[in-house]
Write a structure and sequence with these properties.
Blueprint (H helix, E strand, L loop, with lengths): L1 H17 L4 H23 L8 H12 L11 H13 L4 H21 L2 H14 L1 H6 L1 H14 L7 H14 L23 H20 L4 H6 L6 H14 L2 H20 L5 H21 L3 H11 L2 H16 L3 H22 L12
Helix pairs in contact: 1-2, 1-6, 1-17, 2-5, 4-5, 5-6, 5-8, 6-16, 8-9, 10-14, 13-14, 13-16, 14-15
Length: 363
Amino acid sequence: MAFFCLTITVIVYLLFLLSEKSIKQKQISSFLMIIGIIVLTLFIGLRDNPDIDLDFQSYQQIILQGSSHYYYEHIELLPRLYINIIHNFGLPYFWWFIMMAFSLSLPFLILAKKTDVHKISIVYLGFIFLYFSFSMNCVRQGVAMMYFLCAVTYLQENYRKYFILFLIIAFCFHKSSILWSVLLLLSYFRLDSFKSKKIFIFILITALFCLSLSFAISNISHILTYIGYGDKINNAIAQTKDIEIGSGLGILFRYIRWLLLLIFIPIISEHYNKRFLMQLYLIFIIGMCLDIVTMRTIILNRIALYPQMVELLLYPYLIDYTAKLSKGRFLIIRPVLFIQFLILAFSISKYFSAWNFQTLHII
């Protein structure tokens, strides 16, 4: 695990150094991004930890039993297709995790092609440190969230069809993503300033919606059943106490970084595609408000993760603006960032120290 974290850290650091200027540097950066995706895919795909991960055990049983397993029909189209491929070609069960891991990693290349490798290297790093452990456990939803991230980057007037396309792909991995099709309405908003009254009206409506949601939680079990969470409701209620006990510094850190985005994104928006940033900002606000009313309910909090994950698309702009502001002085900051990456990497490695990995032949 430590080797994985070190490899990812070095790759991202090199992407920082090579992301500017010449075509050759951009080509090297793209190559490094591909290497990073291969490392990520193999790391997730070759894990083998049935004794410590209940979700892993469940997926393993579904893969091995195939269509005879009672939950097989409840799994979405693409994960079920991967199970069929395993059985049709006689592959080891962990090839399902490799295919899912590749599906998780592919959006990074899609995002890099749409924007640039430098920005996506920051998204990549943010994913590793903030959402990686979630994606290791909630495999299908983790993949769906990445395609949702692709979808929101196309949430503009002339690209609605791509938003719909990526949301359909996300739905094919996890049904919960379809709830966020309502965000298509944002593409019809004509927002030119963060001081616009429409922004405040939108935030007010979002806040009222979140408050209403907190009162409606006990009456939406049929919706949760439809999107694939029905069998987990009782477990979630039982685990609520664990959330209350185990969520201290993590919540504090989350709200500190969210507060930074809340304050500084409107300030730096003048230097970038303002309308695009405003759309991301509003989606992020939805996620932040939902977190407040769903943090003690595992199932609903997972649904709220979709708009929360948009924070990954905002950090590159914040870091890029800081770099431009500091000009040459940012060269001094880079080694400091690298040391911080290393510290975070090895901290994560301790968290996953109990995980085992496949050492057998791939086929």
